[in-house]
Design goal:
It is built from six helices and six strands; from the N terminus they run αβαββααβββαα. The strands form three sheets. Strands 1-4 form a two-stranded parallel ribbon. Strands 2-3 form a two-stranded antiparallel ribbon. A two-stranded antiparallel ribbon has the order 5-6.
């Protein structure tokens, strides 16, 4: 019981620190977050891996199991709520964007496919335009583009939805079609 309380307080402290850093780095802005509702049900934790000769399987290492347990118990909703209230205090706003194919869709050409992530690794290679980048950066760019789309809708309609309305299949299809039309331009990227 004592260890569980320590772990819970440690996670709360980390979430407070992370949310404060994000809000301090981006005052007076719209902060886009992936909608991670039901993330634990949508992802699989690896329990076995193939043997090197390709025959049979082995249990993953103790370190990997500990990492899986740690990642699956992290409080994503708590981090979202901390970000939301701290952003309001700093004259910023958080919006949730649809997490559909954020790390599988090419930010340059819009092509989305599971094959863009070879072996489900951290390298993103677009099968259409051969754009190569780290998969987490691709996901961050797609989230940024979707956040800009929410901002564009807000400025044109005057209505802001802080969470995506994906209750019907037609709404999902229309929103995902708009996502496929988004492009990341090198002109908007910072120069190194």
């Amino acid at each position: 019981m004592v260890i569980a309380g320590r772990e819970r307080r440690l996670k709360q402290d980390r979430n407070h620190i992370i949310s404060r850093r994000i809000v301090d780095m981006h005052p007076h802005s719209i902060i886009g977050l992936e909608d991670l509702t039901h993330i634990r049900e949508r992802t699989k934790r690896r329990t076995h891996k193939r043997k090197k000769n390709g025959k049979g399987s082995l249990r993953v290492s103790r370190k990997q199991r500990k990492s899986n347990r740690h990642a699956s118990s992290w409080a994503f909703a708590e981090l979202h709520s901390y970000l939301a209230y701290k952003a309001l205090l700093a004259d910023s706003m958080t919006v949730k964007v649809d997490a559909y194919h954020t790390s599988q869709a090419c930010p340059r050409c819009g092509f989305a496919s599971p094959e863009n992530r070879p072996k489900h690794g951290l390298l993103f290679v677009c099968q259409s335009c051969h754009y190569v980048l780290h998969a987490d950066l691709v996901g961050a760019r797609n989230i940024a583009l979707r956040t800009l789309l929410v901002r564009q809708d807000w400025t044109s309609t005057g209505h802001l939805s802080i969470a995506p309305d994906v209750s019907s299949d037609e709404t999902k299809a229309a929103r995902r079609l708009r996502y496929a039309e988004l492009r990341w331009s090198l002109d908007t990227s910072p120069r190194l």
